Amino acid sequence: GELARAQPVSTPEVEAFLDTLKWDKNGLVVAIAQNVDTGAILMQGFANRDAISATIASRRATFFSRSRSQLWTKGETSHNFIHVQDISIDCDRDSIVYLGQPDGPTCHTGAETCYYTSVPMDEPKLLASTLYALEELIARRKTEEIAPGAKPSWTRRLQQDPKLLCSKIREEASELCQTVEASEGMERTVSEMADLLYHSMVLLSVQNVKLEEVTTELRKRFGQSGIEEKSKRPPKPTAG
Amino acid sequence: GELARAQPVSTPEVEAFLDTLKWDKNGLVVAIAQNVDTGAILMQGFANRDAISATIASRRATFFSRSRSQLWTKGETSHNFIHVQDISIDCDRDSIVYLGQPDGPTCHTGAETCYYTSVPMDEPKLLASTLYALEELIARRKTEEIAPGAKPSWTRRLQQDPKLLCSKIREEASELCQTVEASEGMERTVSEMADLLYHSMVLLSVQNVKLEEVTTELRKRFGQSGIEEKSKRPPKPTAG
Ligand SMILES: [Zn+2]
Ligand SMILES: [Zn+2]
Ligand SMILES: [Zn+2]
Ligand SMILES: [Zn+2]
Ligand SMILES: [Zn+2]
Ligand SMILES: [Zn+2]
Ligand SMILES: [Zn+2]
Ligand SMILES: [Zn+2]
Ligand SMILES: [Zn+2]
What is the model's pLDDT at position B236? Predict the structure, then answer.
């Protein structure tokens, strides 16, 4: 644990920044860790000056443990660190978000996030933001029992029939292009992009790929200007 | 304001749930509001028993204002409510997330979220989760000045040439399909999905459509089993 704990590093810039925060009477602000790829809120703790300066210096999410009265770097025992990419503070400067990539499950229970418990409300709920909730729904379809004689869902049919799935993806890509080619306007664009996104997420489920792997890939590319580098290459000829 | 303030509604189920939370010595838990479509953290406040029961009853994010010692429903003056779809609590039950759809900007400054201030770190930062950061980068390309003689970025070239853009989208859709058709494995699937997602997001920028509109559309569809209803319809013939 001790060696993996991030240490505060005092610099004039960091000290000047810390002076602008609105600390509570215990010298703390609320600190929230968020997954940079999925947007999932991973955990919430508190941070004092040293916790924030240790996070800035090490880029590992670090908190102040109120029960043990000491710094605590998430991952110092589990080695599941949260690698911080961005820190932002709220308008009245008493709350801070660590936006980062977790090495593994954040919760000590092994759950991806500490917020795995949903409060019962009247209607069916979404446990994650929309795309990740849709991904879960698609994953459930893949393994659900289908009673003899019952019709499988559209999602399940696509999962069982790669030819149908691929013909739908090519069709939806074409319909999305037609919104530009035929100037069909914003409403149709929204609808066709939703069609394409849904059908290609079904393909991801068939290939056992998580949307998070795709967003991580995108982050690597545009973070390193990978997408922009492509501009030096001529576009490949269109397939088909 | 007063009329728009949500009122607590006591039911045995809600009271039983509230009894399981770990309240601090002021009877509060940390309460975080998150955008269900984008994953953006909108604001952070505190909630007491009444604030949570008012939120559950009204489905409008409601907090306890420590400075005014009273309930406060986000939107009671601005009418920008946060319509709560899901509530979750963390593993030690002292922190709560309201996941909802905001009617408009959450911050009193007019910013979409209260966390609009980024802390200066060494490297370029991402202000939102990956897909929304990519959307911002694509939007910036659309309006950037290109010095005479300089080569535009790949993104800008796509934005200026609908024919090139559409041929790329159809190509990338086909390449994604080929990962299934030719059993190309997970790594290629990730890469091709990233290609398709990026290029179709450039199309969204051309059509002035926000990714958030697409995820809202997807949430409406699968929330109402709209996608599943499609299974009753035969697939349309493939275009092209
Ligand atoms: Zn605040
Ligand atoms: Zn690591
Ligand atoms: Zn936990
Ligand atoms: Zn379509
Ligand atoms: Zn907690
Ligand atoms: Zn509303
Ligand atoms: Zn604010
Ligand atoms: Zn290609
Ligand atoms: Zn490709």
Answer: 45
